[in-house]
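Bug #77: duplicate submission created two jobs. Keeping one. Sequence:
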Amino acid sequence: MWMLPGLVATSHAGAETVKMLNPDFHKDTPIERLARYWAASWGLEHTYWVIFGTQLQIVQKANTGSVTTAFVQEQYNKSAALGNNQSFEQYLGFLTSSQLLKQGTGDTFVITITGRQLLMYITLQGYTLLKGL
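Kept job's structure:
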């Protein structure tokens, strides 16, 4: 995805969490901190604009517990009926390659830190969770 080494994506309200996985973050210059923050925010912004509404619903549901492959398939079918011409593998692959979900146990998927941060970012920016497809 768009994440830099030693950085977990963050949102506007999580500026203090840009520190994340870099133990030497406090040694970074203000420019380096700004660059990390900008990269994280841009990544979340980009993800919001390219994610389908049905995929966002999957991430939302995963935020309250795991989701099954069957649920993902149901959401995919809804988006296909609205004009999505991706394969199911591409549809699911976006969620995993964007690091919003990861494989859980069995046929389930669970939300990641990046998935939670995307939901927080959307809320803090005042964006809608109800998108097309």
